[in-house]
Amino acid sequence: MDRLDELRLLLAILDGGSLAAAGRRLRLSPPAVTRGLAALEDRLGARLIERTTRRLAPTEAGRRLADQARRMLADYAEAMLEAAGEAAPRGRLRVAAPLVFGRRHVAPIVTSYLEAQPGVTAELMLSDRPVDLIEEGVDVALRIGALAESTLVARRVGQLRRVLAASPAYLARHGTPAAPAALAMHETVLFAGLGATPEWRFAAPGGGEVTVRIAPRFLVTGAEAAVAAACAGSGILRALSYQVAEEIADGRLVRVLRAFELPPVPVQLVFPTARLMAPRLRAFLDMAAPRLAALDVLRAA
Questions:
Q1: What's the CATH code of the domain at 113?
Q2: Residue 17 domain-assigned?
Q3: What angle (nearest 5°) sits at the alpha carbon of residue 238, between those of residues 237 and 241?
Q4: How deeply is 65 buried, as exposed, middle or buried, from its count of CB atoms within 10 A (0-12, 13-18, 19+)?
Q5: Residue 194 forms part of a structural domain
Q6: Which structural domain, as residue segments, surrounds residue 120?
Q7: 210 near 217, Cβ under 8 Å?
Q8: Model pLDDT for residues 14-34, shown as the tens digit of each residue
Q9: Is 105:83 a contact under the CB 8 Å cutoff?
Q10: What crossing angle do the helices spanning 30-44 and 3-16 adopt, rounded to 10°?
């Protein structure tokens, strides 16, 4: 029994509710089903199904493997059809993106994609926490910053900077800092997301970096609330450039310490593998990558 057949066997057992039902579906004898399941569990070193005289139920490991198996088999079937020139995008596409950027820029792309691909359903996961693509069954995610997971494939779509900004009213009252060390004399707003820490790093004039520890007067877990607080004059905010692009453009915030900003960080679409890519994912990448690359907010200067 090959690896794909093992996955089909596991799903047939769970879907059928019994070893006998799985055997009938796959045209296997009951002993062959039992041997196949035992061999898979022995190879993995984990029990996948709890068996009693009345019912079968997946263990946690069995449930996770079954979820992945359904997606893998669907992707495999689509890839085979596509190779034969018969496949149209279909199935469910799961996309992950940071909360604010996803709401403003990724959601409209997903909406357009669904209009163009009637055979696909989509789920957009908006969260500022890092998403494990494999564990959570995500097809593609938008990532800001250097890619740590070496197993993921990345398609770069732009870049962003971490910038400091404050309202004109705040700067009129407290003055504009001329160097990072001056932040010790200022009130600050800290957005506790996307790796934010009370230590802000800056480019040093002679090369390298300098770190300034801040004592935020206002700590907030939502980016939009942090930006609103800065616009209201609560202090100097450090944010990703896209998060304050509108506010800087219309004058509600003023960018400060620009000469000390670190180099921009990449923005990328990442996905688990480029092999046997499902048509629904390829179609999404072909639409999303150029639309994201055309965004002014991803051309950080």
A1: 3.40.190.10
A2: yes
A3: 115
A4: buried
A5: yes
A6: 92-158+270-298
A7: no
A8: 887 888 888 887 878 888 888
A9: no
A10: 120
